Amino acid sequence: MEILRSIYEVAGFIVLIALGVGALEAYFYYHFRYYDRPWFFPVALAAFPIGALVAASAIAGSYEFSLWFYFLLAEALIAAAFRYVVKGRHTVPYLLLAPAFVGLALLLVYPFAFEVYLSFHDLKLNTIMMWKNTGRIPFAGLSQYVKVFTTSPLSEVTFWALLGRTLLWTFSNVFFHVLGGFALALLLNNAIRFKGAYRTLLVIPWAMPQVVAVLAMRGEFHSQNGFVNIAITKLLAAFPFLASLGVAPVQWLSDYPLLTCTIVNIWLGIPFMMVVILGGLQSISSSYYDAADIDGASYLQKLRFITVPLIKPVLMPAVTLGTVWTFNNINVIYLVTGQAGGTEQADILVSALYKAAFTYNRYSYSAAFAIVVFALLFFISVTYLHGFDAAKEER
Q1: C-alpha–C-alpha distance, residues 336 and 229, integer Å
Q2: N- to C-terminal Cα distance for the chain?
Q3: Cα–Cα distances in angstroms (integers) from residue 206 to residues 98, 267, 386, in the given order
Q4: Which end of the chain is more exposed for a tag (fewer CB within 10 A), N or C?
Q5: The whole model's pTM is what?
Q6: What are the structural domains of the chain?
Q7: Which of 167, 215, 195, 327 is nearest to 274 (CA)?
Q8: Is residue 175 scored above 90 in pLDDT?
Q9: Tens-digit pLDDT profile for residues 62-108
Q10: What is the mean pLDDT of the chain?
């Protein structure tokens, strides 16, 4: 019975989605097909706002007449746009794109708009019941953004300390991702035996689920039975002079949590850069290297004047993606340190944001925090894209 019930629920959900897509297509078809008819505006303004109000009331379980005004205003703007701007052009492409566009708007645009709205209000444990009972949240203006820069999201670390730590975390990870990926790509770009097997083995850490990879690597830093401390102990037994240099087994997860997270994330990120750079290396024509050999160029000269300039257009988008992913990478930090409010020594901006929202329940503050992080990432991405455009022009 449980299986049949589950199948029934899934089937009902599929039917509901199909009906929603059908209604959406019918809505847009009307606007595309009958935009020039004299009765276009009366029918649109009479039927669609009422239908939207009925659907919203059925979903919410309550009725608010004020919604009708907003639906009417929205329909008037949409109908005017179809009547005077779209004028029935490109009907088929727009009808095909409409479900995906609306789905993305519901999944991305609405949450982002609500995040911005929340950042200008004061939603926390003291005001959440007011929001539940009245639907209103106290307005806070820019005070949440001021708090982001002047108060600590955590109990020990300030915003500016987190920002510096995040920039160091991002730079060190991306630097070693590119360096390690570039070195491995250069090795695999040569004519060596079992190249496909090597490439497959090197990609495994990145290809497997990140939770599995991170937790497996976390075990290697265990203080007693971890591979890292066992290897250090073996090295000290073979080379006793290393002890005088300060080499000794340490408590990686408790004493050096950020360093441990950095090592794990570098190990996870190198395969991606290797694959991207290897693809770029294989796209470089061998005629450049043949001409350089005739001129007597050394390996380092060919690397500097041929490989690096021609690989830049491939490398810049990968570095941009790697920077954004690393800047936002809460998975490695959360899984390695096991934190849900524990150590703050390994926290970066996004993990502090997570704690501020779900440990300290500062929802509006976290919304403003998220907007600030988004602005930082937007600035970094634009900077990298300018460099990417310059690299394309050089090529």
Answers
A1: 16
A2: 64
A3: 35, 9, 28
A4: N
A5: 0.77
A6: 2-88 (no CATH), 151-361 (1.10.3720.10)
A7: 195
A8: yes
A9: 555 666 677 778 888 888 888 888 888 888 888 888 888 888 887 88
A10: 83
Amino acid, single-letter form, for residue 302? K
User: How many other CB atoms are found less than 10 A from the CB of residue 272?
Assistant: 19
Length of the chain: 395
Which pairs count as long-range contacts for 139-144, CB under 8 Å and 24+ apart, including other chains? 140/364, 144/119, 144/120, 144/364, 144/365, 144/367, 144/368
